[in-house]
């Protein structure tokens, strides 16, 4: 079996194997393995389901007792999904109703829940899916791409979360929980190497520092060689590579049961390729690749590079006074980035193909586009007071403060003359928000309880944009200062049907604060979107079998959204604008299942059906700039009427399935096979419908085959991601070309893991 093509240098393999040997030696000093230890990712010897604790409502509770539609993605699943170097986008279609895509590469993910998301690619874009890392909201889309490593679990909360998470969470919340320090010495290391020089090294170690202090250090390094040939320059393996590194340091102070303090410092460094644009790769009149399309090659005369640096720190303080608890959570996040990509596909300064054989793969102008974030500073502060969770009446109240200050530069670049060609735009944005909130849960009887909450939020944004160069000269400064204040909340009733099953009904609302779009390279005005609001209705069922071998949760929902903020991206005008739709309707169903079919055969499954529909008879957007087949009716101005369309990047069907089968061997070993598959139905890329700009249904699978020993403390496995080597269009650019974004090819590799 070959993990890399003959042209790939073996040097990286030597490095990866050397790291593996060193880490293995380092972990060989572990203490004697307890007899009840379990292999990583293996089902317990008792073959029964363990309780999953979550913090969806900002207190620790059993997943089965929380009346919210949610999925928990375990650390074992994350390790399997991310073996080929996938970042946070690995969560796409891994949970019911969750989808993700990007036009930016590894640093800028765009998430959608129940069809609700935002396709805006500007660096101040707000999203209706809130991402919360260790209780700190990651507001800027650049912050949302922090790699997944040394995590306890990921919690996906579907539906509005306006009470406890506030603004910009009308679609839901994705909540990441890092593994915390303990007084026990523990840690792990894993390394892998695969096709295209895909190498991963991840490690963590933690334990007692003193009788009152414990600490944990976690680190990740991911690498891929360039694997896309540039036929224009003749350079092999020119694009597609990256180096992504991240670190997290934590220290926990706990001298008594009455007070504890946790400090977290983290950082990320990313260098490599930006998103690779595949100019004119989509067939006219269909959603297929042009004949002869090759995923491993492009023709580009420009440059492609990306650099990112983020760092942050947060401090969690907890006091316990009898049956009262007081928490203070302070967060600081900072980021800078620069991303440059070629979009013309290989045209020279005269506007003709530099190489005639590439005529069908280029665009009739030469251009590169770049975005920079020279400053992003975010400060958050939350205070919460709550009572003990053992009480019949559980309550919590709190305050929240958010302050973000960002600066953005975007421009179109002339490679030949090395200067901005179609505009140089500077943007600045300052956002301040504050809120007060409260929630209560009262157990009326042993079989019935009610949860209710409310939040008052205030949001103020000051935005300025100025164009210094462009086709029509300087413009600006242009300003916008939207302000909004409103209530959000929820009401839920839960009925206990039996010892192991319950049903709940939930009504919740939420909102997204006003947004501003100021990418004015080709425009003379900025656009401001009014706040969007949502009301959601949900009925759910949660159950566990009496023998604790099966867990099944399901729900149905319906929502109505008013003034949904939509992004009309590009099109014939090449202008990105924010618009509001009068009404958007959605409804669907979701389920999660987890089961032991035999003591050695464990599986999970999940699925969703999501219907979305825009309801605004007069809403129209600019369609593609030529070379595509628009199927929507056009108004007198030639714009596409989008009433009745589904939302972009909103697959109707999502399904996910994992299975693990183990064969015990000897006293402490096990052979195993683990596989995971995820499916999503067709998605449309833009607000208007066309024959070209959509993606066919996609089924992707992964597999791990390996052996673990010493009760799971050592493991070696072969793996493959995208095992069928499926090639699919994942996104597009619709200005004067049919540019496609494409998924990664099949990756085959080997991995070693060791635990203390």
Automatic annotation (TrEMBL):
Descriptive protein name: TonB-dependent receptor
Cellular localisation: Cell outer membrane
One Gene Ontology cellular component annotation held by this UniProt entry: cell outer membrane
Any Pfam family hit: TonB_dep_Rec_b-barrel
The UniProt record lists the keyword Protease: no
Domain TonB-dependent receptor plug: 63-173
GO biological process, one term: iron ion transport
Ion transport among keywords: yes
First and last residue of the signal peptide: 1-30
Principal subcellular localisation of the protein: membrane
